[in-house]
Amino acid sequence: MKLKNKPRGTVDIFPPRSSIYQKIQQISSYVLKKNNYQLVIFPTYEFTELFTSSLGSTSDVVNKEMFTFFDRKGRSLTLRPEGTASTARLICQNKLVNSNNPLKLYYWGSMFRYERPQKGRYREFYQLGVELINASGIIADFEILRIAKDLLETFAIKDFTFQLNYLGSEKTRERYKKELKSFFSNKTDELCSDCQKRYQTNILRILDCSYCFGNFAFPSYQKSWDNEDNGYIEKLNQILDSDNFPYTYNYKLVRGLDYYTGLVFEVKLMDKNAILGGGRYDELIGKIGDKSLAAAGFAIGIDRLVNYLLDNFINNSTSIDIFFLALTEQAFPLIFTLQKKLKKYNYVSDYNLTIKKIKNPFKVLDYYLPRLTIIIGEEELKSDKILIKDCQKKKDFFVDSKKLIKWIDQYLTKSLD
Ligand code: HAM
Hints:
- The chain is about 35% helix and about 20% strand.
- The chain is an alpha+beta fold.
- A hairpin with a 4-residue loop joins strand 15 (about 385-390) and strand 16 (about 395-400).
- Bound molecules: histidyl-adenosine monophosphate (HAM).
- Histidyl-adenosine monophosphate (HAM) binds next to strand 6, strand 10, strand 11 and helix 11.
């Protein structure tokens, strides 16, 4: 075993990619805070039973993908494969709901699933999850969709459509399962061996099978909707249309986790991998705690989001705003003063830590790629006129050291316009 190799399916995240994760985290916290959502942090591992009883014992996540281990006292623990079950547990254990008011929460963290690794599918991956607890009804469903759309738009993603489906009440779900049973009754031989088992244990899970899904013209969920379900869909569509919300129905979307009850949704960008998924789960919290609470939420796959942003429009290079190039040690006190003054601005700056007797001191700039370089040598200290180079436009300026900060801010702000 080579010590420098990491386990398969895990990712090292380092600059410049890591700065995109950081920005996404900052931007999403800002958007969610503005909408009155608050952060929760729960353990990386939980008792295995939390996941087996809430995600469904026949789901792929529970059956094939959990990282489960025993602690020194023989208790079965599992690295969290997702965050909804943990959020539900956290709410119940800490008795966070004491009124009729909704609780708006979000989380950020790595999740673990033993999947076959490929681009966009990892064994440790990051999710941003948003959960709206103690809230039922169509406006709550719309709120969750709206927040998901807001986040995608804030990340500058434009071409997306939400795929929706409505699983309806227990009765509707049973009707659809019956429909599927009769559809497959004379085709079980054509199913893969896993789906032959799923036919007996949880027939809905056949829709998650990458092999069988493409091989059959599955019955549409729409056929199982009753008057009440159709009334809900009609109202939801009206709200979505009046908001110009980008959506379409996918009547075969059931999602891979067992806890969903009503509305479910996913967004796919370009490739077949979903960038986010979620829905309503009104029965989950009642299974974990003493009282049942209606809830809905979604999670965004951050690694997939970053892949998409990098593939499509983010320039994958580290560059900084200002580099102070000290040509003499006497320049450092002035650099420290200037950096202190820059604190109240939002610019990234850096400087050389040693004065190297190199032939071309400007070589250092190929590494930092600054927008502006402030050069401070003996000449500049004597004359108090500082040389500024716009490295991208290849222009030089001489500015009084006292006016320097104001000049930099005006110049950088103007060059962004
Ligand atoms: P999920 O659809 O299993 O839902 O995961 C949400 C998102 O996490 C996916 O759309 C995908 O972008 C990302 N994801 C899932 N597995 C991987 C993987 N192996 N590698 C990289 N990214 C992955 C949930 O987890 C639910 N808890 C969402 C939810 C919240 N439902 C209600 N509230």
